[in-house]
Amino acid sequence: MPLFLILVTLLFAACEKDVSVNLPQQEPQLVVEGRFENGSYPLVILTHSLNYFSQIDPAVLTNAFVHNATVTVSDGSKTMTLKERVIDTGNMKFFVYLPDLTQPANNFTGKVPGTYTLRINADNKAYESVTTIPPRGMQLDSIWWTLVTVDDSTKARLWVKITDAPAFGNYGRYFTKRNSEPYLPGLNSVVDDQLVNGTTFEIPVDAGVNKNLNPDDRPDEFFEPGDTVTLKFCNIDKATWDFWRTLDFAYNSNGNPFSSPTKILGNVPGALGYWGGYTVTYKTIIISR
């Protein structure tokens, strides 16, 4: 072993010491996950944050949902009330806030472009956030696939062509759906026009992933011959892009000792999470066997 490495080894061995850190218990914060797509009703999920070392199981997750909140969405002229509903998956129950169907005259779907204000009263506190469903500054032109060889197996790589509008400040996020699976975002699910402004460009698109799975159990970024793939491409505003950009980075850096700390940039003052608008375009392709 070189002298330098021996000295470094001895130095760290001599300085080894058990360190016990007493982390204070944080007060739970409201966590907001709200989205509003063009042509659809808004959906809002409210939970309480958990401590870093909390043991996660279905019972803990179920208890984290926030009930009996007052939730409204306004477009500037009309205001609709969202009511709490339960979705039972069999494994656990999810609680979501959706438009009150008993007041259909007040309900409205998202439009392009549109500006929408979310107001929440929960835990004796008031929260407010504004998002936009933006114009299609990034236009999804086409999708196609190419065959690649991965570990002696034939796979398919998905490609897209996008045309960006001349003005700077366009942002996007994508999801993929494989056969009958749900729509899943990519590990790096957002794109912006900082380097491609006003151009037509082609980029490869990784298959979306279920981030609840252990990384070793996830499929790779490719698709299989015979798959029917639907790409969901969304134009989003900068605040929504900032949230998912920082969350994707934090998730992908988890466990990396050389990564820098990342602050998740939400857009709901006083709470964690985001209220985001999506201008959605779908394209489907069948990968030949």
Poorly predicted regions are: 1-14
Give the domain tally. 2
What characterizes the major β-sheet?
A: 6 strands, mixed
**CATH overall fold name of the largest domain:** Immunoglobulin-like
Rg over alpha carbons: 22 Å
- Strand adjacency order, main sheet: 2-1-14-13-10-11
The proportion of strand residues reads: 35-45%
What is the name of the CATH class of the largest domain? Mainly Beta
Number of strand elements: 14
Mean pLDDT: 89
Helical fraction: 10-25%
SS element count, helices: 3
The structure class reads: mainly beta
**How would you describe the shape?**
globular
Strand/helix succession: HEEHEEEEEEEEEEEHE
Topology (elements, then pairings):
Blueprint: H1 3-14, E1 30-37, E2 43-48, H2 58-64, E3 70-74, E4 79-88, E5 93-99, E6 114-122, E7 125-133, E8 138-150, E9 153-164, E10 171-178, E11 184-192, E12 200-205, E13 228-236, H3 238-253, E14 272-286
Parallel strand pairs: 1-14
Antiparallel strand pairs: 1-2, 3-4, 3-6, 4-5, 6-7, 8-9, 9-12, 10-11, 10-13, 13-14
Task: Describe the 3D structure.
The chain is mainly β and 289 residues long. It folds into two domains: 30-133, Immunoglobulin-like, CATH 2.60.40; 138-265 and 278-286, Immunoglobulin-like. Helix content is 12%, strand content 44%. The protein starts with a helix and ends with a strand. InterPro entries: DUF4249. It comes from Chitinophaga ginsengisegetis.
